[in-house]
Structures are given as structure tokens and as C-alpha cells.
Amino acid sequence: VLSPSCRHRHSNPGVNWKHKDAAIYLVTSLASKAQTAKHGITQANELVNLTEFFVNHILTDLKSQNVNEFPVLKADAIKYVMIFRSQLPKEQLLQAVPLLVAHLQAESTVEHTYAAHALERLFTMRGPNNSTLITPAEMAPFTEQLLNNLFKALALPGSSENEYIMKAIMRSFSLLQEAIVSYIPTLIGQLTHKLLLVSKNPSKPHFNHYLFESLCLSIRITCKANTTTVGSFEEALFPVFTEILQNDVQEFVPYVFQVMSLLLEIHTSSIPNSYMALFPHLLQPVLWERTGNIPPLVRLLQAYLEKGGATIASSAADKIPGLLGVFQKLIASKANDHQGFYLMNSIIEHMPTESIVQYRKQIFILLFQRLQSSKTTKFIKSFMVFINLYGVKYGAIALQEIFDSIQPKMFGMVLEKIVIPEVQKVSGPVEKKICAVGITKILTECPAMIDTEYTKLWTPLLQALIGLFELPEDDSIPDDEHFIDIEDTPGYQTAFSQLAFAGKNEHDPIREVTSNPKILLAQSLHKLSTACPGRVPSMLSTSLNAEALQYLQGYLQAASVQLV
Ligand SMILES: *[C@@H]1O[C@H](CO)[C@@H](O)[C@H](O)[C@H]1NC(C)=O
Ligand SMILES: *[C@@H]1O[C@H](CO)[C@@H](O)[C@H](O)[C@H]1NC(C)=O
Ligand SMILES: *[C@@H]1O[C@H](CO)[C@@H](O)[C@H](O)[C@H]1NC(C)=O
Ligand SMILES: *[C@@H]1O[C@H](CO)[C@@H](O)[C@H](O)[C@H]1NC(C)=O
């Protein structure tokens, strides 16, 4: 019914475009059975052949030389591609791509916005092998035009903060990857200029978010190809970042910290002076008052410590108390205590020993105060990772001595009341590994565990360690913790402006110690048993349960060692 009349209208589009608008609307409605935001139309009606309609009626509008003629029909056509994208064959979509790119230049806001949105959606589609349906190679002939037109569209009246265009820029970068590297020196200037403008008066949160995501992608992709280019990004971005921080543009500050973390983490040698100049400002209490700042600021301080622990110790030692002040504030909060531990673990890992030795006891006292005032599962898990990391770094004897220096027999109490009953709750592969290696050291490198009243804890601790290796994680939460206030729950906290493309790599602080903690346990037990023959087998035979003993024999065999 539709085809002949539509064909007729082709011959006289100037008069009949309203009829065609209605016809496309009808087809779209008839054909749509199920629509989702993620995939567009997922189920089509068998009355309409969508491919035929696309070829005969939609493509003609998209192909017209003048993108500004009949904007309503152009918008209809683009919308058709957008909503039926999951139904149309890839071949048709590839035909549509350069046409959509051309429509980014249309004067009509609806038309160029639709074009940007349609491209963004097409670029997220997945093919049968779960890679993007449209590949960077297929985009190669249009890459330059695409990038040009997207940035030019931002200059069109009414679209200077168009979130669909900015999202399409982000998605194009993400799809094209290395193919954008040669364009970045030009584009970064445009992005930075845009950032400077919107930071005067942030009003479009989505636009701003995608702008920062695009910056992150530019950095990641370019620096992956050549890490030394990180300096040129810092040169371009730091003046704007400084202005944002100085004017305290609250919406942007968490983003700036994330981008700075990403940049600093890319550096391979020492920390540049430009970062050190900023360091004292990061410790200002006012910044830590805002919950949205806390996760990105902690990450940034961690990056400072990783790249510049020694520099801070030598040239900013007067700032160490400020750093510990931040730790103290975080650790006192049920919501932010885990962030405090992230910071402290980085301090332990990266600061030279002599620069923090005078503060160590105070750190442990703070932790005990918090344990006494409110002992939550989250705190205990982080606490265990911290003490074991401390033991791995400074040795099991140092760990025992610092506990017992606070209060006699404290070390035994911590093992008995916290480590042995709770270690099964530790989650995360790296966290578990830190605990496994730390406990192995306590078992095998701490004389007090062999020849004092702590000896009675030796087998229960070994049993707990084997449980950590072999048993499922204990994710139970005591009943009285289900009533923690809303502002204390981690889910509420994570509602900060997290950038997907600023993602941090998983860090393993003990990667050089071992990759196989079971083998390390077997080797360490072997060493201990040769140092005091007879003791280890007798402790095992008295109270280790049969199942645990069997697992342990498996580790010894795998390590090809025997206990004597
Ligand atoms: C739609 O038309 C195309 C081209 O004429 C044809 O190849 C395809 O099989 C048709 N699809 C359906 C579902 O009938
Ligand atoms: C995935 O499929 C596309 C075509 O659909 C192909 O070009 C690409 O090489 C495939 N990728 C992998 C990793 O197999
Ligand atoms: C497909 O790839 C996406 C993005 O890389 C990923 O998030 C998703 O888990 C993958 N899905 C499968 C089934 O592999
Ligand atoms: C990497 O980037 C630096 C600075 O931009 C440049 O001098 C150098 O030639 C680049 N190296 C390669 C291998 O492209």
C-alpha cells in the first residue's frame, strides 16, 4: 500500500514531504513491537520488510546532497536507522555511516543531534564475536570526516554543550583507538578550550562528564602508543586544571583529580615538579570535607606515593603529618575507613622506612581506638590486609613487637580475636594473597610463635590459613551491622563522578614476593622445620584437623619439600 504512493512522492518531494513524514511514522509504529534503549527495536512486525523500506525510502533522504533540505524527513530517516539498527543488516548500516557523518553538519539542531546519537549507538553495537560490529578498519575512510564534523557540530548554534555530540566524540575515540592518535594534537586543544569555557559555568552535567571521558581516552590511547607524550597533555591541561582548582569549581574538582591520577600513573620515572608544587594543597582539610572528593583524592595521593614516595620524604617531610592527618580523619569514619587503609597501605609500600618510623606506633594506636569504638566487618577486613602488608614489608618480628609495645600480649590477642576467626572474610585475590603471605611469615619467621605462650595459637593460625586457601569466602555480616545509617554505606559513597575511562589498574604490592602463596607456605615451613627439627611435625600431629593436613601435604608435594 505504501510503496506506490511513496514512489509518487519521490517525484515531488517539495510538496509532499509531510505525507512521507506521516508514512515513515506509520511504518515505524507498525514495525515496532519491542524497544529497548540499549538495542533499539529488538522485535519487528512481519508486515513490513524493514530492509526494503530502508533501501527504497530512507536511503534516498539520507543521500540527498543538501543536508539542510527537508530537515523533518532527514530526522525521520536518521531516527529510522537509530531505532531499527538491530534489525538492519550490517551492510545497510555501513552504507548509512558516512551519510550520518555528513548530517552532523546540518543546521537543524534536531537533525545533527539525531545524527550524533545514531552514530554513537551504532558504535556500541557488538558483532558475533563480541568485538564492535563496526570495526576501526571499516571506519578508516571516514575517520577524518567523522572527527571533523563532530567537533564542527559543537560550533553550531544551540549545540555548544550538546551532550549527544560529546558522547559521540567519546564513543568514536573508544571505537577508533590508535586510529585517532594523529588527530589528537589538534583535538586536545579543542577539548581543552571547551573545558575552559564550560568551567566558567558548569550547567550540563552529562556534557561535562563525556568531555572528561574523552580527555581520558585521548590520554590513554596516545600514551599507550608513546608514553613520553604524557608531558604534552600535562602542558595542555594543567593551566585549565589550576584554574578549576583555584576557583574551586566543585562539579569539576573530582574529575580533575581522576585525570591527574591517570596522567601521573603513566609516568615511569620520578614525579615531575609540577605535581610536587600541588601536593600541599591536596592535604587541605576543606577538600576532604566533600564526600565526592574522597575517592579520587585518595587515588591521587596513592599515585603521588607510588611515583614520589622518596621525593615526599626528602623534600616535603614536613607534609607527612598532614598526610597522616588525612588518614586519621578517614579511619574515624565508617563510610571512608577503607579509603584510609588504601592510603596507609600506599604509605607502607612506598615511603622509605626511616621517614615514617617515628609515626608507626601512633598509627597502630589510632587503629585500636577505632576497633574499640566501632568494630565493623569492613574495618576488620581492611585492618587484616593492613597488618599483613606491614608484616610482609617490615617482617613478622616487627609486627609482633609493635603490637606488644602498645600493650603486653596484644599480638596474641589480635591473632586470637581477629585474625584466626575473621580471615575467611577477606575478599579480593590480591587482598587474600597479602594475608596469606603475611600469615606465613607470622607462622615461620616469628620466634615468639614457637617458644612463648603464643605457641598455642600456631596450629589454629595455620588451620585458618589453609581455610583461606581452600574454603569459600565468608560473606556473612553480623545482624547488628544491617542497621548502619544510609550515609555510612559504601554504595552511597561511590555515587561520585567516576570516570569509566580513567579506570585504575589492579595493583599487587607483593607481586615480587611470590605468585604462589601455597608453595611459599610449604617452602617456609620446610625452612622452619630444618631450623628446629621435630617441632613442626609434632605441632601438626597434635591439633591440625585431618582435612587441613591433607591439603598441607598437597602443598608440600607440589613444592617438592618434606618436613623434618
Ligand atoms: C526483505 O527484503 C529483502 C530484500 O528484498 C530480502 O532479502 C529479505 O529476505 C526480506 N526479509 C524478510 C523478513 O522478508
Ligand atoms: C570479529 O568479527 C569481525 C567481523 O564481524 C572481524 O572483522 C574481526 O576480525 C573479528 N575479531 C576477532 C578478534 O575475531
Ligand atoms: C563483550 O565485550 C564487552 C566490552 O569489551 C564486555 O564488557 C563483555 O563482558 C563482553 N561479553 C562477553 C560475553 O564476553
Ligand atoms: C614519542 O613522543 C615524543 C614526545 O612527543 C617524541 O619526541 C618522540 O619522537 C615519540 N617517539 C616515537 C617512537 O614516536
Automatic annotation (TrEMBL):
Protein's GO biological process: protein export from nucleus; protein import into nucleus
Stored SUPFAM superfamilies: ARM repeat (SSF48371)
GO molecular function, one term: small GTPase binding
UniProt xrefs under InterPro entries: ARM-like, ARM-type_fold, XPO2_C, XPO2_central
Residue stretches in coiled coil: none
Limits of the Exportin-2 C-terminal domain: 120-555
One GO CC term, this protein: cytosol
All copies of domain Exportin-2 central, residue ranges: 10-118
Pfam families: CAS_CSE1, Cse1
PANTHER family linked: EXPORTIN-2, IMPORTIN-7, 8, 11
Protein name (record): Exportin-2
Organism: Oncorhynchus tshawytscha
Gene that this polypeptide is encoded by: CSE1L
